[in-house]
Each structure stands twice: as structure tokens, then as C-alpha cells.
Amino acid sequence: MTAAPSLLVSRNPADPSDVLAEVPAPGAFATVGSVERARSAQRGWLLDGAAARARALGAIATAIEAAAEELAVLAVREVGKPLAEARAEVSRTAAIWHYHAQAPYEPTGAVHETANGPGLLLTRRRPHGVAGLITPWNFPYAIPSWKAAPALAAGNAVVLKPAPEATACAQRLAEIVRQAIPDGVFTVIPGDAVEGKALISTVDVVSFTGSTTVGRAVVHAATGRGIPVQAEMGGLNAAIVMPDADIGQAAAHIATAIAGYAGQKCTATSRVIAVGAALGPLRDALIEALRTLPVGHPAEPATVCGPLISEQARRRVEQAREGARTLAGGPRPDLPGWYVAPALMEDVPAAHPLLQDEVFGPIAALLPATDLDHAVRLANSVPHGMVTSVHTAALDAALHGLDHLDTGMIRVNAPSTGVDFHLPFGGAKASSHGPREQGRTALDFYTSSRTYTLAPVKTT
Fold first, then answer.
1. Which residues are catalytic?
2. Which of 19, 43, 140, 341 has an alpha carbon within 20 to 30 A of 448's alpha carbon?
3. Are residues 360 and 329 in the same domain?
């Protein structure tokens, strides 16, 4: 007897009784079938040429703009993203597709002189075939788009497996994308681990964003097959505040980076390192900033910190408050969803989870440092290296951070959160594996380089 397929259920984290999607997981066999159909469709997509791909990606961007408010409201409801952030994500998503709509016209190679005699030497980049994308729930439109848009622009077909918690958003995005491109070129496979493993076993290139534990398994499976893979994983990000910083501005930036979208970003700040005399003023300013930061239903325009994605996520954040002194963070807000109050902790032991693991919630540890070198050592002391923010009025301190911090991104006098889609994105150490994504760099990942030798026919 064949086992019944597992059911994927996506709930509103602000109202868990509100079910947005309830679909059967397709299973491994159906996933492999989708990849094979994508592989057949990819050939025609590539042969359609650069102009056709550019038009299609531009049309997708325009359609996203036309559906902007609907998409934002859906993200608010399905993944609990505050309305202002949801609108900003949709706007960025459209910009990503507009940006990559020009990519099909980018040069794909170069001509070189031969070493001996007449002829031509050429290099040319060609698509891998089918790109398998495994994406998280926290940016349900932007992350699938910054992976899919360059993959499609380069001539690949795409099979996307979104996180179950973002199933409805992914399906709606797919409806928009499929209106502009041929059948089979872009497919969404709802699912979980079974579908993800089947996808990796069949596609020609893999891009993953998610937890460190799952990301390592993805990398192991893909490299075992010898296919290109990139993985963006966890962050344990620090904000360094120097005594000469604008403490009020730094506290406002850091509070938002701790608690914006309930801290559910790989670029969120989870460690605040105060250097010397900055400690006392920063402590007071940050406590006040977190205390007054708007917490509430994500559909309210003023909300900055909404619910966590699940009851399990809330439990993880609350457990992370044990074993340290609470400076900010009261009881749970009296709301029906999975909410917690943004928290700032002090006197955190070195082995505490806040200093070892990504909690993925609105909570951070406040740590003292004697000087800038000490602050840099603290920032670099964790396995991850996604992003660090440095708050200072001194150019030499900023440059010191740029030279010595072991993170893929360094932001001076700005929150740790925030990504420029036209620049390479990625971390160091355990935060990332493989080439960078976003910007023009993404085109290199979704293609492979070929070298051609064209020699003339010798005549007698």
C-alpha cells in the first residue's frame, strides 16, 4: 500500500488559526519529474535568445509592480512580515527583475590571440541547465528572485523549492513568473526535506539559503555529485560601538537590527560590543530604543517587530534568555500570535547560546570591550561571519574594521541589516559556501566557462 503524502500547512504567525496553504507534499518522484520537464524546456529557452529573455524578465518586474500591494499583504499574512518591510521587499523584488532583465545582453566571453599562427581562441560562458533553488520563508519574494532572475537570464531553467512556511507566497510569485516565460522553465515544488534531497540529486546547479545545519548537508550532497553549489547560512552578527559614535543614532540602528521583523534575518544584530566609555550611554540608549520600538500585529503600518514564525521559534528565543541578566524585554505581548518582547541581555557567559548559535529572534547580548582590537577579537570569535556593523566618527577606526573583521560584509554607521541587490552578497567562515550571489557575480555562478580553439584548415 502506498503511504499517503505528507501535508504541508502554512499558518499566519499572527493568527495561527488562519491557514493560508494546505497542500500535499509531491514527494521525490514528482520532484525528479519536474526537473526533467525543466531540462526539456531549458533548451528552447536558451535558443530563444537574449532579447526574448530580457523581455520576459522585464515583464515579470512590471507584473510584480502591478501586484505590489497584494503581494505585500500576502507576505504580512503568511510570514508575519511587518507591512512596511513587506512593501519594501516587494519593491526590491521588482527592482531585482528589472536589473537582471539587462543581463542577457552582458558579454559572455572574450577573444584571445593564439600562441602560434592563425586562428582564434575564445572563452564563452554557458548555462548549466536546470538550477535547483532552496529558499527560506523570511524573504519569500526577494530571495527566490535574486536566485531565479540571474539563473533565467543566463539561459537556465529553474525549479524552486520554498520553505513550507512560505508556500502561498512562492505559488503566487510562480503565477506571475509563468505568465512571461515558456511552460516548464520555472517550476515551484512545495515540499520539505524529501523534496529538497530529490532536487539536489537531479539538478545541474544548486543555490541554498537557510540554516547552517541544513546548508552543510546541501553542500555535502551537491559536492558529492560534483555540481556547483552555493549556500548562504547563519549569522551571529556583531555591532561595534566606539566611544566617539553618535550613541543615539547607533542605538536606533542597532535596536532596529535586533528586533526588526522579530530578528528573523541572517543579517540581524545578535551581539552588541561597546568599547570603553561607550558602554554606559549605549546601554541606556539601547534599553530605551528597544522598550519603545513598536511591537504589534504585522498589518499595522507602524509595527517594526511582529510575531515569530512559529511556536517553536518563540520557545527558542525565550530559552535564550535563561542564564543571563535581562536589561530589556518584558513578558510576552498580549496578542494571539507567536510574539515575544525584544530583549537585550548582559553578563552573558562565554558558552551561552547567544554567543555560540544563531537564535533567529529579537534578542542580543551586550558585551564590553576595552579597546578596538579587543572588540574586533570578540566580533571574530564566533564560527559565523556574515556581517558586522561599526559605529564611529573616526575614519581610522572604520578602516581598522574593514581590514581586520572576518565577515563578508562590513557596514559603517549603518545597521547590520540591509542588502544592496546589485552588489555581491555573502558571508565568511560558516556563514557561506561557494561563490557570492546577487549583482553581476551571480551570472558567473549560473554559468560555466568554455574555452574554444578555432584553427584554420590547412591548404596545400
1. 232, 266
2. 140
3. yes
